[in-house]
Design goal:
elongated; 0% strand; mainly alpha; 5 helices; 66% helix; 119 residues; single chain
Length: 119
């Protein structure tokens, strides 16, 4: 892919077509690479995935998304659901802050040990 070039997305039908040509018709990867302007390593990954998972390997599974977006976007949530989401969000933030504090304390302890060794 050249600099500034938009990334191409492949549909599951296109992926299945390329993989089937390779496996059923025994067309070489090099030929498919030139014909479809696809990267060789990408085609090989598709083939491995198809062999491991079968026909369902190219079905888009989707991303889980941000669960907390519902707090801001959905006005149809009950008050109980809103409170549950807020609690979950605050628990995650709390854990993140604990990790940050732990790192700071560790850094301060190292600094103190270095100062003691110098004395």
């Amino acid at each position: 892919m050249k600099k500034g070039q938009k990334r191409r997305t492949w549909t599951s039908e296109e992926k299945a077509e390329i993989v089937n040509k390779l496996l059923a018709e025994h067309v070489s990867v090099r030929t498919l690479e030139k014909e479809y302007h696809a990267d060789r390593s990408m085609i090989c990954r598709w083939v491995k995935k198809h062999i491991a998972e079968g026909e369902s390997s190219f079905v888009h599974k989707g991303h889980p998304g941000n669960h907390f977006a519902a707090l801001h976007t959905s006005k149809h949530l009950s008050e109980e659901d809103q409170l549950r989401l807020m609690v979950a969000k605050l628990e995650i933030e709390n854990e993140r802050l604990k990790k940050d504090i732990g790192r700071k304390e560790l850094g301060q302890a190292r600094y103190t040990l270095l100062a003691v060794k110098r004395i």
